[in-house]
Amino acid sequence: MSVAETLRIHHFEPFSYSNGPGKRAVLWLQGCTLNCPGCFNPQTHSPTGGASVQLSGLLSRIFRISPSIEGITISGGEPLQQLRPLLRFLAEIRQKTHLSVILFTGFTPEEINTFPASNKLSELIDVLIAGRYDKSHPSENLWIGSSNKTIHFFSSRYSMADLLHVPTGEIIIEQSGELLFSGIDPLIFR
Ligand code: SF4
User: Fold this and answer.
1) Starting at the edge strand that comes first in sequence, how are the strands of the sheet with 127-130 ordered?
2) Is there a smaller number of Cβ atoms within 10 Å at the N or the C end of the chain?
3) Where are the domains of the chain?
4) Of the residues 11, 32, 35, which should be mutated to test ligand 1's pocket, given the most ligand atoms within 8 Å of the CB?
5) Residue 57: Cβ-neighbour burial (10 angstroms; 0-12, 13-18, 19+)
């Protein structure tokens, strides 16, 4: 499989505890046209923001850290608006690592079903968290976003109980010394 394609990314975080069960890498993709009112990540909307990265380089980085993480979470931005390279990326992760995959999308399952090749998604991810973010319906499970989002398990790797124990926010000190705040705005810890 060729991995000479690119993904436009907003940020890659190698180690996080508030974006899914256990210690995980997080990939925020750049670009989203869905405009959910109250979106807490508007800086990810521009299709020309962030950086365009080669899949091969991104995958090498993930393969290197894979022994020390449980999985990877893909968020955004809207990941499914880069569906073709995303499917290639996820196929490599599935074939060459033990990593679990959680995917956030603003699209509903009904919308996803209309996308070409979307049927491959269920083979390549463990959990799909789907639907527009709705600020007026906060989720008790805050890291999920809003209570209208639907959660779909495509493997036996995780259960709802696993998702309920994820911390709802964290502050990560980057190698550069900058602080990264990860979680729903306003950041709530519990
Ligand atoms: S799908 Fe996500 S990034 Fe896009 S507008 Fe909705 S909450 Fe924001």
Assistant:
1) 51-54, 6-16, 24-29, 71-75, 100-105, 127-130, 150-153
2) C
3) 6-183
4) 32
5) exposed
Q: List pocket residues of ligand 1, CB cut-off 6 Å.
A: 32, 34-36, 39, 41, 44, 76-78, 106, 132-133
Confidence of residue 143 (pLDDT cuts 50, 70, 90): confident
Question: Ligand 1 mean position to 67 CA, how many Å?
Answer: 31
Q: What is the pLDDT of residues 101-113, one digit of tens each?
A: 999 999 999 999 9
| Domain 6-183 top-level CATH class | alpha beta
The pLDDT tens digits of the residues spanning 25-79 come to 999 999 999 999 989 889 999 999 999 999 999 999 999 999 999 999 999 999 9
